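Batch job 17 of 40 flagged for manual review because the log was empty.
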Amino acid sequence: MSRPLAFVRELVLPVPGPEDKRADLERLLDTLDLEPIVVPLRVLRALPDTVRQREYKINPVIGVTEDGYSLISVHTDSCVFGVAIDIGTTNMVASLWDLSRSRRLGHLGLTNPQSILGADLLSRIHHCMLHRDSLPHRLLIEGVNTLLERLTEASGLRPSQVHACCIATNTVMSHFLLDLDVAHIPVEPYVPVVHRPGVRLAEEIGLKINPSSVVYIFPNAGSYVGGDILSGIIATGIHRSEETSVLIDVGTNAEVVVGNRDWLLVGAGAAGPALEEGVLASGMRAEEGAIYRVDIGDDGVRFRTIGDSPPKGICGSGVVDLIAELYRTGRIDPFGRFTEKTEVVIRDGERFFQICGSRGGLIGVSEREIENFLRSKAALYTTLRVLLEGVGLNFSDIKTYYIAGALGSGVRVEKAQLLGMLPGVPSERFVAMGNTSLKGAEKVLQDSALLTEVKEVLSKVTYREMNAEPMFMNYFPSAIPIPPSATQSI
């Protein structure tokens, strides 16, 4: 049976007497019989009163670390709860779990509050380098604590009842989370402060849960191979497979993993984001009210929203559908420019194709946004091509393509293939995975034995820097236009 990142033990401690004068902590640790175990001073201070009030019958909560255990609480009257969190550059998502019963209690997403400092990581790093302050850290912690508060409140819990947290995020964001210096990450030789943050206590970071809760932060394999990628590998299980598989994660960047149980090769696309909320003016997360299907026919534009609710914006799969349909019907040319047959409106001085209106304004896409999309899809396709060619494989050699991130929430493969975003292999080879970063964090939260697997994955990862890769620069320009067919191959 798997042991979660935090668990409870029912103990009856021997009552002290003339023949047993062990200290309270010795008595507890001898009965608990787990080692090595760290006992925070906060917990130690609560020990004497708690064991005597409970007449030496206690239910201590123990957290699992990478090299042992940590005593989180001397006693709990309830189940043990934990939270898995994916912190992205644009969005953050969390799920609340009853770890005693392995049951998910809630799920919630928010926009990353750091967005006020800029949509991209470099803008936020520049802020730190210019102002030498901790504002990005404070904004991030504020956002995470808001998630924790709303999740627990919706489930009738208090944040203090959360005893474990598992966080997957990119390298820069993990540094912001821990309030570490990011100034050396974007400049050669691209050195972060830490690769393996490991397990920390909640009070060290500023998380408003049980102060002694264990907080596991996925390690990174480099400045551009973050814990979110390693978490995605854990979620898909490609590190256990004999066959070589591919993980494609499209979020703020286009990231690709190629590998199997023996080796893992990672690359990140050089172009900016295309599918994230905040990048498209009409963009939003895949949640209720988001347009996720678009079809254009003789009778005009037809669309569907998540929950069949009134439209609020358009999510990643909807963006792919929309641009593919604009191209299929001749409303944009291969470079994303509107043709004469396209009915456009002017919004903020730009030509704009409108799907519909909403309370928040027009929902649709501008030529500039289409251009950004084409560059991102080219970065994704080229990264995949370069990685496969580097190990002597063709697109057709891969039996399973796991699709994650903004592209992994209900994308129609044939539409992405039409645009040249995905290779032209049979559609049944593509498996939509949704948010693999969160799913990997949820797995580790529920099964602490995976901490060892994460270390093994880390040792197998090799990163190829696409910005300095001649093959990438050669292939990228020709991948920008929309191809006339989906039969590209290598």
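Reviewer: the log was empty due to a logging misconfiguration, but the result itself is present. The chain has three domains: 6-73, 81-217, 237-490. Unflagging and moving on to job 18.
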